[in-house]
Amino acid sequence: MMKQVRLITLTLLLGFCGIANAGVIVLEGNYMGKNIFVKNPFGGAGVGFCVFEVTINGKLSPDEVNQSAFEIDFANQGLRIGDKLIVNIKHKDDCAPEVLNPEVLKPKSTFNNSKASVSREGVFGWTVDNENGKLDYIIEQFRWNKWVKVGEVSGNGTPGVHNYEFKITPHSGENKFRGKQVDYTGKPRYTKMSKYTSSSPEITLGGDKFKGSINFKGGATMFELYDRYGTIVKRGYGQTVDIMGLQKGTYYISFDNDTKTVQFK
Fold first, then answer.
1. Number of domains in the chain
2. How far apart are CA 103 and CA 216, in angstroms?
3. Please, are residues 138 and 152 in contact by the beta-carbon 8 Å criterion?
4. Is a pLDDT exceeding 60 seen at residue 119?
5. Rounded Cα–Cα distance for residues 59 and 73 (Å)
6. What's the helix, strand, coil split of the chain in %, to 5?
7. Statement to judge: residues 209 and 193 lie in one domain
8. Contact (Cβ atoms closer than 8 angstroms) between residue 165 and residue 124
9. What are the C-alpha distances in Å from 34 to residues 65, 73, 90, 107?
10. Does pTM surpass 0.70?
């Protein structure tokens, strides 16, 4: 009986403190130098505002929340650009505050690219500054009349000058390389393009009709194999392509810096 009384008392205390029947909005991201703005309606009962507490990385925010709109100010939190942020906005469960600009915690591509080049050793390098968000650089090579992803390099994400490198695998003849970042907007931003002429021998096919496998002459190569509808059925890197299990008919294979029509028997 005593345990039941204690449980009821605890529940009543939590209710008076505004903790029971509460909701929370959790924002996770990185500090990008901007603050969060929150639209804060009245509670469902019309008494008091919806939000009653905000924490930043587990610490209580000193910002005044008892108003129809307020700002979560990160200026006095000792944060550096790129630092991890977890913001908890605690509110009554009969109302819903609105975060007006949650995107400010997401990394944004802002880099300036001063130069890009490919060394004699086959290393694509580029120099940037003004990074304000940790994003990967996607490395692309121009092959088969399109840009093809060939790798990734992690971006530093902080202001200052940064140098990056990526070991390339060139095809025969002239090559083109570039890097790009894609942030929350979905719009890519590109580095300068760099050209590189390879002395590697040209890769060829030993005919146009195959059964069981396709063998490249001249060495290993990146390849993409398409069916007659243009759907990729295989891609990879090597000197042999296993085609066991594929139906007979017309296919298209892109390799080295060429594309050929082939028949599977």
1. 3
2. 48
3. yes
4. yes
5. 13
6. 5, 50, 40
7. no
8. yes
9. 18, 8, 21, 12
10. yes
Per the listing, tokens 């001249």 go with 218
All residues at 6 or more sequence positions from 176 whose CB lies less than 8 Å from its CB, including other chains: 141, 142, 193, 194, 195, 196
Rounded to 5 degrees, what are φ and ψ at 2? -65, -40
In terms of domains, do 23 and 67 share one? yes
How do 84-92 and 22-30 pair as beta strands?
A: antiparallel
pLDDT 10s digits, 22-72:
899 999 998 988 999 999 999 988 889 999 999 999 999 999 999 999 999
> Which of 198, 216, 238 is where one domain is finished?
198
Domain range for 37 is: 2-105
Using an 8 Å Cβ cutoff, are 158 and 200 in contact?
A: no
Q: 9 by DSSP, 3-state: which?
A: helix
Domain-terminating residue out of 105, 121, 156: 105
